[in-house]
Amino acid sequence: MKAITVEPGRAGSARFEEFPEPGAREGSVLVEAVAVGICGTDVEIADGKYGWAPEGSKRLVLGHESLGRVIDPGPRETLRRGDLVVGIVRRPDPVPCPSCAVGEWDMCRNGKYTERGIKEIHGFMSERWRIEPEYAMKIDSSLGLLGVLLEPTTVVAKAWEQVSAVGHRAFWEPRTVLVTGAGPIGLLAALVAVQHGLEVHVLDRVESGPKPDLVRALGATYHAGAAADVGFQPDVVLECTGVGAVIGDALQVVSSGGVVCLTGVGSGGRVGTLPMADMAANVVLRNNVVVGSVNANKRHWYRAGETLARADRSWLAHLVSRRVPPEEFEKALKREPDDIKVVIQFSEA
Ligand SMILES: [Zn+2]
Fold first, then answer.
1. Percentage with pLDDT > 70 across the chain
2. Cβ pair 251, 178 in contact under 8 A
């Protein structure tokens, strides 16, 4: 079979090449790849800036936003041939730490977890892959190709749970949400917030292209420009850019008692114009919480599946803005202006 592989740490080493069939040790369920989504992490790995090959291997099969069709469910009867499944990405660390021991591998304390297509386990950009039945999430079959959006949706499902958990430290009746960034994570965050019945505002830099319309189609309000200028104080900010100036604005604009959830990973940039202690004083005097959120455990994967199953299919379809065959994977790794979610499509859903 063929797979898209990379030598981690070496820029430009990605290839679509012959690769051995997945071994039985990788899981009892055999899956035919349908599609794999591309995110910033894949681009970083292909650029040699991130990623680790499995022990004893020089190359890593790329891809962690999967969608596939079960070819052989294996001895356990939990899945059937033809089911559409998405593979959970992270595996608990072997120690395990207390969080991994209770199945909350997303909260791993020692960093020894592994991740498919990222850290020491092969990913899903191969014509066939195997998975353990307990890490294969069956999706609503009517989603078809849109099931490839499940993994990014798990990220916002966890973020929302974190916001809710923090909110309930006191009387909690949020009405307004500001999402910063209208990429795939931001748009899916807006979807989750709308489904929870909140008044949702989404902010991004662009003034044209598909993003403003997609936000309005959700019944949410689109803002172009700076978060400091949105003209209201949101109860919740879901920060999806990782940009220093946006984070600084989020901290200043959030309401008294409000929660800022950071999901974006960036670097550099000054936090607004306020010195650190002044920023902290604001947080103290207004009972704000800033919470970081990464990855997802099985509870969030389940909730993300519910979110997608309830969502409007044509709205979701607009998020998958470009499909590329595996032999042209390099095109998928290059951003184009109107890209939202680019997927590599291996077979028909
Ligand atoms: Zn752990």
1. 98
2. no
